[in-house]
Amino acid sequence: MWSSSQASTRGVVEMGRVEAGPSHFPKRPAPRNPARVNLSRIHAVKPCSAGDRSGISVKCNLGWSSQPSPDLRHHFTGYSSASEAVLTSQSDLRKLFVGNEKIGVLLLNLGGPETLDDVQPFLFNLFADPDIIRLPRLFRFLQKPLAQFISVVRAPKSKEGYASIGGGSPLRQITDAQAEALREALCEKDVPSKVYVGMRYWHPFTEEAIEQIKHDGITKLVVLPLYPQFSISTSGSSLRLLESIFREDEYLVNMQHTVIPSWYQREGYIKAMATLIENELKNFPEPQKVMIFFSAHGVPLAYVEEAGDPYKAEMEECIDLIMEELEKRGITNPCTLAYQSRVGPVEWLKPYTDETIVELGQKGVKSLLAVPISFVSEHIETLEEIDVEYKELALKSGIEHWGRVPALGCEPTFISDLADAVIESLPYVGAMAVSNLEARQSLVPLGSVEELLAAYDSKRDELPPPVIVWEWGWTKSAETWNGRAAMLAVLVLLVLEVTTGEGFLHQWGILPLFH
C-alpha cells in the first residue's frame, strides 16, 4: 500500500528530473466527512501574480532564450527535505523556468466529431480502443471488425444527437480556447510555454500533437489530461497511447515529462465549481430547496472493484470538497451523485442518473440543479444527454424546476489554477510537487506515463466477470448472462463473416474489406 507520506521521501531531483512514486493505484477510500482534505495548503513555489510586480509590465515571448541557462543545482543543494527547497525570489523563479528550456503542456481529451459525416469514423475509433471494449485474448483479432459493426449500428442514433446540438461536437473549439487561455495564464506567471491539444479519438489526434511537440523542440513536457478525476478508461487510455508513442521514438524517450493524473482536489477548481453552482441556484424561485444533482460519467463496476480504478473514490471526495466550499458560503442544500452514459450489458457504477431522477421525482423533489461533475467542456453528454434527455425525464417525473450548471470551459479561476498545477508539476520543481501530495492525499501519485499504467497492465486481462454465480429468473445475473450470450453470438457471426467472406454484413456493405 502506497502512502502519501512516501512521496516526499521517494521524489528524486536530478536537475529537474523527477522519479515519483510506486507505480500502482492505492486501493483506499477517499477521505469523507469530517476528515476532509485541507485545501489551505502552502505550496513550496508560488509565483507572483501580475499585481505583485509593482506596476512593471512583463511581456511574454513565445520564443525561448538561445543562451544557456546558469547551473541551478544550488537551488536544491544543502536542503534536508524537498519542502525546504524554496526559491526566494521572483528572479530565481524566472531563471529556473525559462533559461534555454522549451516547456510544453499537452492537454489530453476525448475528442468528438465536428460534422455529421465524422460520427461513424469517430465511433469506430472509440470502440476500437481495447480500454473501451475489452475482448478475451482469443477474440482480440475481432476488435476492429466489432468496432466497425457497432459504429455502423450506432451511427444513425448518434447522428440524431449531434444534429440536435448543431451538427457536431463543440469539444475541439472549447479545448483549443482552453489551451490558448492556459498559455496566456502561464505567460502572465512568467512561465512561457507552448500548449498543445491531443484528442484520443478524433482530430487533432494525440499523434499529431506529438509531432508538433517534436517539431518545436520541446525539452520539458507536462501531460495534463482534462479529466478532473483519474480513470483507467479515460486518462488511462490516453496515457497508454502516449506510452506506445514514447517507446517508439528516441527523441521522446529522452524528453523529460511529468503527468498530472488528476486534479479534482485543487482549490481553484473547487472554488470555480462552487461559484458556478452558487450562481445557478439564484435562478430558482426557492434556492434553498433545490437538490444539487451531481451527474458523472460512468465506468464499468469491475474497473473500480477489481482493477483498483480510483475514479469512484476521487469523485466522491471531489463532491465532498465542493459541498464543503458551498457550506463556507452559507449554502447547505442537499446533494446526490449518480452516473450517466452507461452502455452494454455489464454492470456500471451506480446509482444510474436516469433511475435516480425518477426516484427523486417520486420522493417529492420539485427543484433539481444538474451539475456535470466529470466534464470541463460542453459536449454531447451535457448538451444532449443532460439538457434534453434528462431534463425531459425530470419534468415527466414530477420535478417542476430544472437547471444545469455550465461546464467550466475557460472560467478564469479554473484556468489560473490549471496554470498553477502545471508550474508546480514541472520537472524543475517536481520534488516539491511530490511533497505536496502529502497535503493533498492524492489517490494517484504524480509520476511518469509508464509508472501510472504498470498495475493496470498487470490486471486488465484478469478482471473477473461482474456476476460470477449463475442465478435463474429475471435477475441481474440472468440479464448479464443474456448479454454475454448475445455478445458471444455476435462474435461467432463475425468469425464466420471474416473467415468465409460471406454473410449479411458483407451483403449490407458493412465489411467490404473482408471479401
UniProtKB/TrEMBL annotation:
<comment type="pathway">
    <text>Porphyrin-containing compound metabolism; protoheme biosynthesis; protoheme from protoporphyrin-IX: step 1/1.</text>
</comment>
<dbReference type="InterPro" id="IPR001015">
    <property type="entry name" value="Ferrochelatase"/>
</dbReference>
<dbReference type="GO" id="GO:0005739">
    <property type="term" value="C:mitochondrion"/>
</dbReference>
<keyword id="KW-0150">Chloroplast</keyword>
<dbReference type="GO" id="GO:0006783">
    <property type="term" value="P:heme biosynthetic process"/>
</dbReference>
<keyword id="KW-0456">Lyase</keyword>
<protein>
    <recommendedName>
        <fullName>Ferrochelatase</fullName>
        <ecNumber>4.98.1.1</ecNumber>
    </recommendedName>
</protein>
<comment type="function">
    <text>Catalyzes the ferrous insertion into protoporphyrin IX.</text>
</comment>
<dbReference type="GO" id="GO:0004325">
    <property type="term" value="F:ferrochelatase activity"/>
</dbReference>
<keyword id="KW-0627">Porphyrin biosynthesis</keyword>
<keyword id="KW-0350">Heme biosynthesis</keyword>
<dbReference type="InterPro" id="IPR019772">
    <property type="entry name" value="Ferrochelatase_AS"/>
</dbReference>
<keyword id="KW-0934">Plastid</keyword>
<keyword id="KW-0408">Iron</keyword>
<dbReference type="Pfam" id="PF00762">
    <property type="entry name" value="Ferrochelatase"/>
</dbReference>
<comment type="similarity">
    <text>Belongs to the ferrochelatase family.</text>
</comment>
<dbReference type="InterPro" id="IPR033659">
    <property type="entry name" value="Ferrochelatase_N"/>
</dbReference>
<dbReference type="InterPro" id="IPR033644">
    <property type="entry name" value="Ferrochelatase_C"/>
</dbReference>
<dbReference type="GO" id="GO:0009507">
    <property type="term" value="C:chloroplast"/>
</dbReference>
